[in-house]
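Quick one, tokens below:
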């Protein structure tokens, strides 16, 4: 149709129709977006009514050691009569200072029991299963739970795990008016999602607080499997062991710790995610203890410098510093200096992820381990052992170094050789060095006898008495070998070299930046 010949009504329809379609499309998009983004709830009351009967208050008591009554106050200056033997005042002295009123009274003779208050939640009403934190009931001689209706019941410990700070209790709940909870998927939670925390702050009783998830995968250095959910919902002393709920009323976290300079809530609380807690709780219920997978390696972070020194394009994975003899890793062919990039088809993006992945792996399972070695990927296969069994057998005990014999330096006649590119002075390790620095006979390498504090090596803590056993994963026993490895790194454009140190039996990798050689 020609617009010039069109009638006014036709012209209006021709122009308005596309505009109407656009407006309808925009409205549809906005409506869809608003449906996905859940609005802030006007009230948590209905959800709180449903969830409060699932939460219990926990009180644990630890009996102190008995204190024997004392006949005379030990801080009294009159431990014995000041009068000579046979003096008539002696009888009066004994009657006065040893009379019954001067004995410790019963409430003074016995210390009050040590009490602990916390929270927990009912996971299984039929079997009376209650979940809380290990630190709430650790060392308890008596445990009692208080239900939402103030009913008090005794409880017993089914199993505990200090590494994740979890505990499973049992009480007779069959005839009680309580509800049970279910676990939700903590991995589905996003930063900004609403959560509810219920617990027993300061022993006041059931208390409900609300907030949002502030962050995920927090590491607060409380244990080997840190992966906390952070929230701004008020969590105070006594909330420990209480549940964190999503808006569907599922437990997605177990409140465990707070960050607070004062001991009160400052809006930074931490909860164990349900995805981490569930397998541990399952093992505690079934075995009364945990049965974790074990690989048998000591690992450390892969820094940008370490990645560069090993030819890895991006810093990722877990660097193997030490391999436990006869452990699963050694049997699989994993070596010190390998970077574990993937384990059981799961990528290892950071060092701290590997312990949890291994721990959650079934014992005696054959898994594929992908490592970075000699500038390329290698695929190995490991049969997973049991962590607790390795602990019982002493395979995880760290070497206890004796520092009493460490001196300031070696014989002044042995000046060593300066590796100016990395800011240290070394000498081949001999019997004299072993005696001075208490170094085991099986340790081989170059002894550090001086370190420039302004160099990168000095700033990273390399010090006199350390032994360099490898440079860039090549053993060094002579100074010439160290010089050659450093020169090779410089020629290939590397900005750092990777040193393997033995410090009083502790093995550690340190990447050291190369600096211009003053001798050149």
């Amino acid at each position: 149709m020609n617009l010039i010949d069109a009638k006014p009504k036709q012209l209006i329809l021709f122009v308005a129709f596309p505009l109407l379609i656009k407006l309808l499309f925009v409205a549809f998009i906005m409506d869809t977006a608003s449906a996905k983004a859940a609005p802030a709830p006007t009230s948590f009351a209905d959800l709180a009514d449903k969830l409060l009967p699932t939460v219990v208050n926990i009180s644990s008591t630890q009996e102190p050691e008995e204190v024997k009554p004392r006949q005379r106050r030990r801080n009294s200056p009159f431990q014995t009569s000041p009068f000579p033997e046979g003096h008539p005042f002696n009888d009066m002295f004994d009657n006065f200072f040893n009379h019954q009123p001067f004995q410790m009274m019963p409430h003074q003779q016995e210390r009050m029991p040590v009490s602990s208050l916390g929270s927990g939640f009912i996971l299984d009403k039929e079997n009376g299963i209650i979940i809380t934190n290990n630190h709430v009931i650790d060392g308890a001689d008596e445990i009692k739970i208080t239900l939402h209706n103030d009913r008090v019941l005794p409880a017993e410990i089914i199993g505990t795990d200090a590494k994740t700070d979890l505990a499973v209790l049992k009480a007779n709940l069959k005839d009680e008016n309580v509800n049970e909870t279910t676990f939700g998927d903590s991995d589905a939670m996003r930063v900004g999602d609403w959560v509810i925390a219920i617990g027993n702050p300061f022993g006041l009783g059931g208390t409900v607080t609300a907030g949002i998830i502030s962050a995920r995968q927090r590491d607060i250095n409380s244990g080997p499997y840190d992966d906390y959910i952070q929230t701004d919902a008020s969590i105070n002393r006594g909330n420990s062991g209480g549940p964190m709920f999503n808006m569907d009323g599922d437990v997605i976290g177990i409140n465990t710790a707070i960050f607070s300079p004062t001991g009160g809530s400052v809006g930074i609380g931490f909860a164990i995610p349900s995805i981490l807690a569930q397998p541990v709780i399952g093992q505690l219920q079934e075995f009364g203890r945990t049965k974790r997978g074990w690989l048998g390696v000591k690992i450390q972070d892969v820094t940008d410098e370490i990645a560069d020194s090993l030819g890895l394009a991006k810093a990722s994975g877990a660097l193997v510093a030490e391999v436990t003899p006869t452990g699963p890793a050694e049997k699989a062919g994993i070596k010190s200096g390998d970077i574990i990039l993937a384990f059981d088809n799961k990528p290892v993006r950071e060092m701290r992820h590997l312990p949890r992945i291994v721990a959650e792996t079934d014992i005696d399972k054959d898994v594929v381990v992908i490592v970075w070695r000699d500038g390329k990927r290698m695929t190995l296969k490991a049969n997973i052992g049991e962590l607790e069994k390795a602990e019982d057998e002493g395979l995880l005990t760290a070497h206890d170094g004796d520092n009493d014999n460490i001196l300031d330096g070696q014989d002044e006649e042995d000046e060593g050789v300066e590796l100016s590119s990395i800011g240290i002075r070394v000498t081949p390790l001999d019997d004299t060095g072993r005696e001075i620095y208490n170094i085991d006979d099986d340790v081989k390498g170059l002894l550090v006898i001086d370190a420039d504090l302004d160099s990168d090596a000095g700033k990273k803590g390399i010090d006199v008495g350390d032994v360099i056993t490898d440079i860039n994963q090549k053993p060094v026993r002579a100074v010439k070998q160290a010089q050659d490895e450093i020169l090779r790194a410089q020629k290939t454009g590397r900005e750092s070299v990777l040193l393997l140190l033995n410090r009083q039996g502790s093995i550690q990798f340190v990447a050291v930046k190369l600096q211009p050689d003053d001798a050149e």
